[in-house]
Amino acid sequence: MLRLFKFTQIGLVAITLLSTTCAVSQAGEISQSNRDIQVEQLVDGLGIPWGMTFIGPERLLFSEKSGRLRLLRLDTLELTDIKGAPTVVAEGQGGMLDVAVSPNYSRDGWIYFTYSKPADGEATTTLARARLDGTQLKSWQDLLITDSATSTRVHYGSRIAFDHQGHVFFGIGDRGDRQQSQNTENHIGTIIRLNLDGSVPADNPFNNDPGTRNEIWSYGHRNPQGLVFDTRTNRLWSIEHGPRGGDEINLVQKGKNYGWPVISYGKEYWGPVAIGEGTHKAGMEQPRKVYTPSIAPGSLLIYQNDDFPGWNGNLFSGALKLRHLNRVSLSDTGMPTGEERLLEELNLRIRALAQGPKGWIYLSTDDGRIMRLRPRKP
After folding, report:
1. Smallest Cα–Cα separation from 172: which of 90, 255, 241, 121?
2. Which letter does DSSP use for residue 213 in this model?
3. Which residues are catalytic, by number?
4. 3-state secondary structure of 217
5. N or C: which end of the chain has fewer CB within 10 A?
6. What angle do CA 12, 318, 336 make, to 5 degrees?
7. Burial of 274 (0-12, 13-18, 19+ CB in 10 A)
8. pLDDT mean by block of 10 residues, the chain; 378 residues
9. Which domains does the chain have, with CATH numbers?
């Protein structure tokens, strides 16, 4: 049964921390079975690092679900608190969520955020942006306070992706009210597409539909916690939590309905009962891949480098329930051709992923670590 969380002052976390800088221990290699890769732990003892983005070759900005923003210098492993973040509802699955730099960051300096914003005793997924001046966020702008508020504290989404054509995408979950994912009069269960300044693109699919919010790019999603745009193929990919079974990788296309909760490959949590009308229905899209049992995905990355042989163009996701790094290879037409489960022996809930400037993969875990994968040195 879905738990309803009482809205309390404890759930509101206002970040008013003074800027602090501290050094952490040197990176250390972690033993694991794949002899071709080297896994290093860079820092531990954090909260839950929910999102990560590079703002320079050696500067990794990350969010903590509690509401904190911090900067990790990879050359010195120093941590610095960033001031100026908003109040967030840090209850259940809510909090400070994703963080991503603008594709024009070197020119415009914008950093984009999603977070659970308090809304009359409820909470709603919000897209915002700000600029970083030293250790202070400046010019904070809430670009879209979505119409997705509910009294539950689950299924906020909400990864950010850019198409490098002037648009930003982000996902919103069903907020614990599954039928709303088919109601396009609000933003629940959708993937949103906006111009970088938060305005609605003229070619969005529902601009001329009075019964649909014009920010919507696609709908019928359950909880897309991974979203990535492949600039080489112009494909937008999402990975989302199913219920008990039925996690999905979807190729997200303009104006399409992805079926939740009318069609699903999952079952109810309370019993072996299929959800919806079946797994297929006319007018509803099929996933490119289904995970049964669920891996509980927490992120999505498309790897674009040749440092790891055979990984270029592959999709990577952190798995929360089955605790591994999931790799899926793709054909030229975007069909999955293989799967590998890495780092299973570490038994860690992998939350966020980022590719660094050198082509190495960075990951965060729910027990408060940031780690790095790189090819093993000969």
Report:
1. 241
2. -
3. 155
4. strand
5. C
6. 135
7. middle
8. 33 38 63 89 97 98 98 97 98 98 98 97 97 98 98 96 98 98 98 98 96 97 98 98 96 98 96 96 98 97 96 98 98 98 97 97 98 90
9. 28-375 (2.120.10.30)
